[in-house]
Design a protein that fits this description.
binds zinc ion; 275 residues
């Protein structure tokens, strides 16, 4: 196994919360949060790996015991905001209220302060960089919302590919990308992990580790739950959401065997010590 440390991160939300369906409609959908979460926790335990769970405040309100259990099993809890809205569609005040609401809920559930954040849909882009000021004001020390790629919904294509300081007290951990010519290819998890063959993900992550850095990998619980309901969605969203879900669990097992994973907070501490 490669000895470079990578960050394993989970965006903890239910299957319908990442579909750009407004929170006012969420109560109409059946919750399956536990199905994928429990599979994920079992895989992590079996590999003796720990992760950062970026928990959506709304999901924590629905199932507080699940969040306590995740923490009790040794994982780091971060915030994914409260209502899963695109940051660049909010104004700074709305974003701040959303973050504070999630932090209130999460700090009431776990014994440790919340230090890390990931924006819904990686939606800190050039037009919403003001969000970094608010995250720093809220006492967060790290963020993992920047995807250094071009995507219709997110991305800062020319952002650094490695950890960088976005504010004096706030470090950014961009999602893993593989450099091909002058382009960054997203290889950090989610739909990319399900669409590309596993051997390609492994090749790319090994290349990233050989460049000397840890990769930030992400997954959602619903990606381990191929039986969750199928909605009729806009083609681009529907295709990537449901693509190859049945392969996720088996692939994750291989990934956890091939690479060393720690929570983001551990990766940050380790890098602080060596730099
Ligand atoms: Zn999300």
């Amino acid at each position: 196994m490669n000895e470079v440390l990578n960050a394993f991160t989970v965006d903890l939300e239910d299957w319908y919360q990442g579909l750009e369906i407004g929170p006012e409609q969420w109560s109409g959908f059946a919750s399956r949060l536990r199905v994928g979460s429990e599979r994920l926790l079992r895989l992590l335990d079996a590999a003796s790996a720990r992760a950062t769970f970026f928990v959506l405040g709304y999901a924590a309100e629905q199932d507080p015991d699940l969040i306590r259990e995740i923490r009790a099993r040794g994982h780091e809890i971060g915030t994914h905001g409260y209502a899963h809205r695109l940051v660049y569609r909010l104004d700074p005040e709305e974003f701040k209220r959303d973050i504070e609401r999630s932090l209130d809920i999460l700090t009431g559930l776990v014994d440790t302060p919340i230090h890390t954040h990931r924006a819904p849909f990686f939606s800190i882009t050039r037009q919403s960089e003001w969000a970094f000021d608010i995250l720093a004001e809220c006492g967060l020390r790290s963020d993992s919302s920047v995807f250094p790629v071009r995507n219709y919904r997110y991305g800062i294509a020319d952002a650094p590919r490695w950890r960088y300081q976005v504010r004096p007290q706030l470090a950014e951990f961009p999602l893993a990308t593989y450099r091909l010519g002058r382009r960054n290819i997203p290889v950090g998890g989610g739909a990319y992990f399900r669409i590309f063959p596993y051997t390609l993900t492994r090749y790319a992550l090994r290349a990233i580790n050989a460049e000397g850095g840890g990769a930030v990998f992400y997954i959602h619980p619903w990606e381990l739950d191929p039986d969750h309901p199928r909605l009729d969605l806009p083609r681009r969203i529907g295709l990537t959401h449901y693509w190859n879900l049945a392969a996720t669990e088996r692939r994750l097992e291989r990934l956890l065997g091939d690479f060393r994973f720690v929570p983001l907070g551990c990766l940050m501490q380790q890098e602080d010590r060596t730099h």
